[in-house]
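Re: beginner question about structure tokens

> Can someone show what the tokenized structure looks like for a real chain? I only ever see the sequence side.

Sure, here's an example I had lying around. Input first:
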Amino acid sequence: MSKFKAIRIVKEPAYAASYSEFDESELMDGDVTVRISHSTVNYKDGLAITGKSPVVRRFPMIPGVDFAGVVESSSNPEFKPGDAVVLNGWGLGETHLGAYAQKARVKAEWLVPLPKEFSPAQAMAIGTAGYTAQLAVLALEKHGLTPERGPVLVTGAAGGVGSVAVSLLATLGWHVIASTGRPEEAEFLKKLGAAEIIDRAELSGPGRPLWKERWAAAVDSVGSHTLANVLAQTKYEGAVAACGLAQGMDLPATVAPFILRGVSLLGIDSVMQPKAKRLAAWARLARDLDPAKLEALTTTIGFDQVIETAEKILAGKVRGRVVVEIG
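And the corresponding structure tokens:
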């Protein structure tokens, strides 16, 4: 199959994404070629496809930051044809031709073997968002935080990162407070394990340097005023794992939570994590993520629905995770 279907983003004459055809000769350097079976739609993918943030740094580009598939050919002894694999990050869909295609050529070091506990569709139901949520949970644990210390807050709880974080933390015994701007999703979040639901309006406006202590830990995918207010209400020697910017990249906060309560801000990067940490995160997902909850938070779409779904995810009209059947 020298020709294959893909989404192509061009910059000229105007930024645009469209369904197109690529030739295998256009693929970039790499020692493993993968036949992609599934991908997903993350918030970052929405930004890339719409051009609302400068995610894409090479043109033309195939967007899509993660995929699951089967090795078609490999010149690296670590992988052989037929191996099931997963890829998250490493510039896929940004600087390297990405996942919204029937084929990809990548570096072997970027790939992780598909955990036996997951099908390719389940792996993409987790996707970069779920993998990022797991990295955030691991960071909180490394900081020494446990459910005995008090509640944990999850912002953007109905989104991709948030919904998986709620499920993981509830399974681990945390009292989960879910913040969302979609009150109609309250029952959905409670089924995932949230013990309390709060309106995001409580956190999204300008706030004080310090508020009453409310939670021992938090996973924040929102940034801006929300993150500032989360920090201002974190308990003494608590920590906040920050992994997103849905509200903005700014942080209008003061040093008060850090120097008066010893609060820590833990940055979570999912793109350039070394393989050992990726394997550890996927192992924990296989152990802690309830398959029934994963199914409950997942919607499946066809390849021809990716562009319209990208618009919806930025508009806050997508809940949980979206799996794309590449076909």
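Each token stands for a local structural state, so reading them left to right follows the chain. The domain at 129-267 is CATH 3.40.50.720 (Rossmann fold).
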